[in-house]
Structure formats: structure tokens, C-alpha cells
Amino acid sequence: MSLGIMEEEDLAEYFRLQYGAAAAADAPMCQRRMEALNLRWEELSVKKAQLKAHIQFIQENDQKWIRAMKKANKERELKRQHMQELTKGKQEMVALRLEHQRLSAKLQGYSIFNKYLKKVVENSEVSPRSLGGRPWHLPQPHLLFPGPWGGVQAQLAGDCGSSGPHGLCRMGTLL
What pTM value is reported for the model? Predict the structure, then answer.
């Protein structure tokens, strides 16, 4: 009998005859192998469940990691925007400081004029006792305009006999 032309029934019969005596002798050993295989199968099932749980854990961690990266990117973008705003604020502060310095220098130039005017006023004022309360640099109205106290005509005539208000003569000189 050649194996190439045997049918299935013949093949099963051939194996039973060929290995039947050896299989009967190896029955306890075969039983132990079956138990070992069943035990290994159960171990693999437990390991498969553990791997599924581990894969699920890894997937959850990946999702958490993705959310954390999105949050970190968002925070990084916010920080970048805040830094841009801070830089812009600092630049505006520098510009305002320069403008303040420019205006202060301009004001300093004008303050010299103000000081000058104050000195002119201080130097031009005469004590009230000396001129009857009138500054010396202002023209005396009673000397410029004709009236009861004299004026231009009285100066020309040289009349200084009567005194006017504030102890001045008709010509505007002190008595």
C-alpha cells in the first residue's frame, strides 16, 4: 500500500494498525500531556485576559497623554500670548518713558521762561511804603492824563506845591 493512493478510511485504518499498540502503551503519558496542554491553555487564557487589560490600560493612558499634550500645547500658546502682551507693554512703557523725557525737557525749557518772569516781577516790585503801593515801572496815570491832580500840563508848569494821593506831588515824584 502506497500512501499516495489511499483513501481516508484506509488511511485511518493504517494509522490505527500501525500506531494502535504504541498508543495503548502510551495512554497514561498521553493523558498527562492532555492535562498539561489543558493547563497551558488555561494559563494562556489568563495571560490573554491580562494582556487585554494591559492593552486597555495602555489605551487609556494614551488618551490621557493625548489630553495632557493638548492641554500643555494650549498652556504653551497662552504663555506665548502673555509674553507677547508683556513685551508689547514693555515697549509701550519705554515709548511712554521717552515721550515723558522729551516733554520734561521741553517743560524745563519753558520753566526757564517762568523763572525769568518771576525774577522780573520780584525785581520790578517796590515796597508799598516807598511808592504808596504802586510798582515803579508802571506809569502813573495821574501824570499822563490831565485831571484834578495835574498831569502833563502840571509837569510842564513845574507845579509841585500840592501833594496828590499817596504822598506824591502833582508831578509824580515822592515828597
Answer: 0.38
